[in-house]
Design goal:
Layout: H1 5-17, H2 20-23, E1 27-29, E2 40-50, E3 58-69, H3 75-88, E4 98-108, E5 111-112, E6 119-131
Parallel strand pairs: 1-2
Antiparallel strand pairs: 2-3, 3-6, 4-6, 5-6
Length: 133
């Protein structure tokens, strides 16, 4: 079966970068440009696993979004995380070549970077997809 990583990444980027409320707060990147400012969201790692049923070709996909901030404390990260959930958690999403079964936030972790001025929050979402017939 074809990988869903690229079409899923495109769908996520379009959803996030197309939301004016989110982009008023933060940039959304696939690769962070040298001149990027804080805060920003980076589309990160993807792990796919087959999840077939009797008559369906399916995939379970975990993908990570990284929130980066220079705000002192975790308030800015919390506001960005709430926006990400509003846009993705249990929301419909069109993924080219696949039918979305479900998407939800599985895990997040707010961290202090070794640079004491930076905060980091990896956020993992779990997605179930079926190959379109």
């Amino acid at each position: 079966m074809a990988s869903a990583a690229w079409p899923l990444q495109q769908a996520i980027y379009q959803r996030l970068a197309g939301d004016t409320e989110l982009t008023a707060i933060t940039g959304v990147h696939d690769e962070v440009p040298e001149a990027a400012t804080y805060p920003h969201v980076l589309i990160g790692e993807v792990v796919e696993e087959p999840d077939d049923s009797h008559d369906n070709q399916g995939l379970t996909v975990a993908f990570v979004l990284h929130i980066w901030s220079k705000y002192r404390g975790y308030g800015e990260i919390g506001r960005i995380l709430a926006h990400l959930d509003r846009l993705l958690d249990r929301r419909p999403l069109t993924v080219d070549g696949f039918e979305l079964v479900a998407i939800f936030r599985e895990h997040h972790r707010m961290l202090r970077d070794p640079d004491p001025t930076i905060r980091h929050c990896p956020v993992r979402y779990r997605v179930w997809l079926n190959k379109e017939r």
